[in-house]
Amino acid sequence: MRKSNLKTVLFDFDGVLCRDRFYEKTLLPDYADVYDWIQENIFANHELVGKWMRGKVSSSDINLLIAANTGIDYKTLVTLYKESVRQMQLDQNLLDLAQLFRKSGVKVAIVTGNMDVFSQITVPNYKLNEKFDLIVNSADYKLNKDDENGKLFDIVMEELGADIKNSLLIDDSAKTINLFKRKGGQGHIYKNFEKLKIFLGEL
User: Fold this and answer.
1) pTM for this predicted structure
2) Helix 46-53 crosses helix 59-70 at what angle (to 10 degrees)?
3) All domains of the chain in start order, with CATH
4) Which pLDDT does position 109 carry in this prediction?
5) What does the alpha-carbon distance between residue 57 and residue 48 come to, in Å, rounded to a whole number?
6) C-beta neighbour count of 75 within 10 angstroms
7) What are the residue ranges in the chain where pLDDT is below 70?
8) What sign does the dihedral 14-102-169-120 (CA atoms) show?
9) pLDDT for the residue numbered 1
C-alpha cells in the first residue's frame, strides 16, 4: 500500500495513544496495598478484564469488588478511580499526527479494547470526538477486537465508509495487527513514535 492510497488510519488507545494506568496516579503511594491487590486480582485476571472490556461488568462492579476485598471505602475508591482516569496523559505526538492525517483528507479513528470509563470520562475529557472521525470502544459494542474474526473492524469500516485495503492500524498488539492484515489491511506494531515515523516514511 502506497501512502497516496492511504485513506483511513486507526489508532489503538491503551499502549499507543496512552500508556498510563487506571488507579495509579491517585492510589499511589497512600493506598499502595489496595493498588497491589488490584494488579494481582483484577488486571491479572484476564477473564474478568475481558468481561469488563466487553461491557459485561461495569466499573462500579469492579470497584465494589475491590472495596469488599481491601477495606477501602467504596465512595473514596470511586472518586480516586475517576480522578486517576482524568489524569491519564495522552501522547501529543500521536494526537498531532492524527490531525496531520485528517488535514490531508485521511479519516482517523480510535479503535480500543477498553472499559466503560473510557467513553464516560476519557473521550469528553480530551474532546477526542472532536479530534477523530470515529471512536469505537469495545465496551460500547460488547465486542473485543479479536471477537468474531475482527467484527469490530468490519463495523469501523462500515461506519467510516472505508475500504480496509486502504487502511492502516497502529496497535501495540501483534495478534491484533496480524488479524487486521488477514482481513486485508495494513498494520504497524507500535513500539515508539520514532519507529512509527520510519514505518510511515517507508509506505
Assistant:
1) 0.95
2) 150
3) 3-19+89-202 (3.40.50.1000), 24-86 (no CATH)
4) 98
5) 8
6) 10
7) 1-4
8) positive
9) 46
SS3 state of residue 162? coil
Nearest residue to 160 (alpha-carbon basis) of 102, 89, 203: 102
Cell numbers at 179, concatenated:
488479524
User: Which residue carries 483511513 as its cell?
Assistant: 8
**Which triple of cell numbers denotes residue 12?**
489503538
What grid cell was written down for 168? Answer: 492502516
pLDDT at residue 4, as a whole number = 62
Residue with the three cell numbers 473485543: 144
For residue 167, the surrounding DSSP H or E stretch is strand 167-171
Give me the pLDDT at residue 203, please. Answer: 81
How far the first Cα of the chain sits from its last, in Å, is 7
Distance CA 157, CA 133 (A): 12
- Which residues, 6 or more positions from 193, have their beta carbon under 8 angstroms from its beta carbon? 91, 93, 94
Neighbours of 197 (CB within 10 A): 12
pLDDT score, position 202:
85
